[in-house]
Amino acid sequence: MAVHHSTRPFTPGTASLVSFAEEVFGYLPRADQRRWAHAYLEGLLATPGKKTVRRLAAAVSASPTASQSLHQFVNASPWDWGPALRSLAHWTLRRTVPRAWTIGTVVVPKRGESSVGVHRRFDPASGRTVNCQFGVGIFLSTDTEPVPLGWRILLPSRWTDDDTLRERARIPESSVGDRPASAQVLDLVHTLHSRTAATPLPVVADMSSCTEAASLIRGLDRAGCDFVVAVPPALAVLPGGRPRGDGQDAPVPVRRLVYQGDGFGEVPAPLGAPGAAPAGQPRRLLNALVRLPERPGARTGTTTPPAYRAFARRVPGRQADEPVWVTNLTRHSAEELVALTGHHARTTGALRTLEDDFGLRDFEGRSFPGWHHHMTLVSAAFAYSRLADAAAAAAARVDRPLAVVRSA
C-alpha cells in the first residue's frame, strides 16, 4: 500500500502512529485488517474536510481499489470493536489524570430510511425534527480534554421488531429490546468500568432535553455511581429531607424548588460554558435538597427515598437558560460541583471537534457493526491526536540531562 502525504499537515510525532495502531488494533486476526485499521486512522488524521471513504483512501493509498477495500473493512468485515476500545481506554489512562466520565450525544442527519437506526427525532440544537441516527458516547474527561471510549446507537422499535430490518443491518440479539437513552448510558458506564477495572468516576450527563432523566438518576444510584445530571427544569421532585408520611408531599418543578432554595456559595461559570461570567464576576449558586417521587406501581413505605442536591447558577437575565443539575454528591462544595459540570461543557466542545475534524458524522455504510467500527476508529484517531504528542513531549522532558533541565 503506497502512502503519500495530503495537503493537511500531519505529524505523527514521537509516539508512532504505527505503534499506536498496533497497540489498539493488534488483536485483529488478519494482517490485512490491521493494515486497513492503520490506513483508516491515518486517513482520518490526514484528510481535510469531509471524511468519505473515497477521500480517506486517496489520502493514504495510490491503489485504485483502496476505497473498496477500506469500505469493506469498516462496513462488512466481521471484527469485534470491544477489544479496541478496551485497549484505547488503557492507552488513554496511562497518559491522563481522569476526573469524570461524561456523556455526550450526537445527532447524525440522514437521507432515506436504510441506515441503521434512522428515525424521526427532535434535535434541540437545530430546533427541528430531523431524519437521523442518534448516538450516545461515554468520554474519559481530564483537566484538558475528554476522550471518547464507547458508543451506543439508539434503535427504535421499528428496527428491533422487524426481523428483515434487523438481519439487513446485522443488529445482534443483545441489542434488541427496550433500550431507551437512559439504559444506553447505564450500559456504557457498566461497560467502561468493566474494561478499565478502575474506581468509578463521577458520571456527568446532560439529560435536560430528555424525559428519562429520573430513570437515569435512579439507575446510577442503584449502581453505586456518583453523578451530576442536568435535568429538565420541569422535572417533578419532592422537597428534600424526610417524607412527611401523611401523603401530603406534593411534587413541584425542580427549577422552582431550586430558585426558592438557599445560596450555596459564589462560584464562576464552569470552564468552557457558554455565557461564562468575566473573570472576577462570580455568580451565586442556588440549591435545594430534593427527592424523586416514587414510580407508579412501586411499593411505598418500604424505604425512604434518597435525598439529592439540586443546584443551578443564578445569573441575572439568564435564569431561564441556566441548567438545573441533580447530584448525589451532597457533601461536595459548590466549587467542586461546578468543576464537574465544566466537564460537560468540554465534552460538548470535543463532540464539535469530532464532527468537524474527525468525520464523526461521515460514516457512509448502513450496518450496525459498520457504525460501531467507524465510531471506534474516529475515537482512536481523536485520542491519538490529543495525547500522543503530549506523551512524547513529557517523555522527552524526563529524558533530558539534568544540566539541561536546570538551565531551562
UniProtKB/TrEMBL annotation:
Q: Which domain of life is it from?
A: Bacteria
Annotated Transposase IS701-like DDE domain ranges read 24-242
- What is the scientific name of the source organism? Streptomyces abikoensis
Designated name of the protein: IS701 family transposase
The protein's matches in InterPro entries, at most eight in alphabetical order, are given as: IS701-like (IPR039365), IS701-like_DDE_dom (IPR038721)
